[in-house]
Design goal:
The structure is a homodimer. Chain A is α/β, with parallel strands linked by helices. Helix content of chain A is about 40%, strand content about 15%. Chain A has 13 helices and 15 strands. In chain A, the strands form four sheets. Chain A has an eight-stranded mixed beta sheet, with helices on both faces. The longest helix of chain A is centred in the last third of the chain and has 29 residues. Chain A starts with 8 loop residues before the first helix and ends with a helix. In chain A, about 55% of the residues are buried. Chains A and B meet through α2, α4, α5, α9 and α10 of A and α2, α4, α5, α9 and α10 of B.
Amino acid sequence: MRKYTEMTREERLEEYAAVKAAYEGQKACGLKLDMSRGKPGREQLDLVTDMANVLLQPEDFVSDGIDSRNYGNVEGLPAARRLFADILGCRPEQCFVGGSASLQLMYDAIARAYTYGALHSERPWSKLDTVRWICPAPGYDRHFKISQSFGMEMIAVPMTPDGPDMDRVEELVKDPAVKGMWNVPKYSNPEGVVYSDETIRRLASMQPAAPDFMLMWDNAYCVHEFDAPFRPFDDILSLCEQYGNGDMIYEFASTSKITFPGAGVSVMATSEANLAYLKPIINVQIISYDKVNQLRHVKYLQDREHTLALMRRHAEILRPKFRAVLDALDREIAPLEIAEYRRPVGGYFVSLNAMPGTAKRTLQLCKEAGVTMTGAGATYPYGVDPNDTNIRIAPSLPPVEELEQAVAIFCNCLKLSALEKLGL
Amino acid sequence: MRKYTEMTREERLEEYAAVKAAYEGQKACGLKLDMSRGKPGREQLDLVTDMANVLLQPEDFVSDGIDSRNYGNVEGLPAARRLFADILGCRPEQCFVGGSASLQLMYDAIARAYTYGALHSERPWSKLDTVRWICPAPGYDRHFKISQSFGMEMIAVPMTPDGPDMDRVEELVKDPAVKGMWNVPKYSNPEGVVYSDETIRRLASMQPAAPDFMLMWDNAYCVHEFDAPFRPFDDILSLCEQYGNGDMIYEFASTSKITFPGAGVSVMATSEANLAYLKPIINVQIISYDKVNQLRHVKYLQDREHTLALMRRHAEILRPKFRAVLDALDREIAPLEIAEYRRPVGGYFVSLNAMPGTAKRTLQLCKEAGVTMTGAGATYPYGVDPNDTNIRIAPSLPPVEELEQAVAIFCNCLKLSALEKLGL
């Protein structure tokens, strides 16, 4: 296989005709495949459905003397706080256990800063002219949507193999209007980057001008290796505390990709001072989150070790899917030098940078052949990828055979758009 | 028994000494009883714990072709929307089924009006100088807390046996700064008043000056009779629609007092136009609420008829508790003419108006004898009852024997504070 950039125009025309013919054949199959979101597949759901059997008799529902079936304990069941503290390495007193969605906890954390202000805010953010927010990019589209919905000015900071460009971040936080930053520190969405120890230390020790800076730490994939042994991580809460930044950090996690997506349990871990400030405010909104589901998770997941064992079984299901995608890319795309990508070992995505200016076109071609991917640009603030290059692939939902078909189509779409770009 | 107001000072002194002695005896028992919140009792929780057994095998989790265990359907499972539409008498398309707390749906509905504005808002409410809100009083403290937390100017409107004073309400809505109103239309909290047809018609047909007026219709006790046959109610959504007010109405309900308090399912029913406007905004906050719990409820409750049958079993448990309270009041308090109350037949509370200026003192005496009641004033905006008269009694949690002890103490506290007020 020859690199496309080294081909003559004639060779490219020939290649285009061949690839186009193959693509038209694929299109005729009438495939309908969704690779747009990080949804676990059916096999993963079945794997954990035993969870439904752990709470059956009235006496099962009592934990630490608390009847999980009744109102109360807005901060979550003590046993659920202990479980998450075990997983995250922090203290139970720092864990606020919520409902089925960590996204809701993140949105609400920011909404409260807007309406009431955070612990160290001078005034509610809704009373400020400008709120700026640091967005490592490519990043998670739903994070950016939250920032956008509150009218924040989002500042994209490039991702490196070690995490966000810290020189840039340290410069930006000197602006008191910069009120926070999104992070997915382990197996970042979409690139699967793990923040280096040095990056994490620099983040924990930075001195933002805003006294109410929120370091949003979405540890969505904290135990989510699919092709590597579990990689331990330091407790970000105590690290921030060491640097006098204890009230700056808000860590989030959930069991959405451990048990049921959208029917699991979520957590916000932050300083006890923050929780003392936030609890009465949260209590205006809700008497208590679903403690029955919290207890169901406690009984099913038990502790960190037992959770890690379950994650190894998820990995068995996910690994062949990621390999199917990555192997096809290695085989079909790498030699052509028309795209760059990493081989992630955890998380839920493969991130690929196509030839600049071809991401949208590639996904349009995919769609025409029945393969839906995350919209181009979604991984950038405001949905605009300045170089039109980044594509997020979510291999978790389809079965391997369908995935192989889909990625074969995707490879051809990458080739076609690259050839078009190079000129025909 | 003689009325206290007709006693001479000497007779009152004698009575006071006798009641005081009885009270001191009760105090010495060291009782510790919580009648502060409308928490269902243990027997009611056990009654519905079978619900945990309806979803066990992977195939149980699929409904209308949707796997409830995975992400998606932010508006709720179609079957859950149908269930609530059946109970409320509206259309499934008007139902947004949420998480375990209708309070959260109410809070979030108002929070969105603040941050983004409602469908017909000219601007987000956070950008307005003043937002006023109509609060029928006595009312539900948690409603008032929401209003207060957003800095609203709350306007108390007196409750009548037919619902809020409508002459006053119709006058108030002429002010464009009046943006909404709280309502518990059936078995109001705390009085157990059922809004009359005429009140409901006047509410549905009013012409508020604010184009984005929110008629908050907390139908918390829509199927919650404990001492009467089920009382049907008209669909408030179509009634508002008839008067051209379709987008003004937001109805809320939940299964918190049908299945598990705080681990049930909630609903917001509103116009399809409102939902079309709100859905993308809600989707920024959450991918989907817990559909597994929604499906669990659908399978367990089935439909309106089956739900009503379950409510009759709850009534069997609640009736003796309410009767214990009301019978004691009839026996001990009514003849003295020192308090007024109604005999509710549904809902979760008994509301009592003590002699003006004695509510706080009565509850302080209760507390000293180990009986915790809802704080005096809580049933009024800002927690201030201008006449210091209203007391909310929540008889649902304690077993009947404990309740009898508690209400005996309460009666003595009422007597003592009345005698103190009359002068000793």
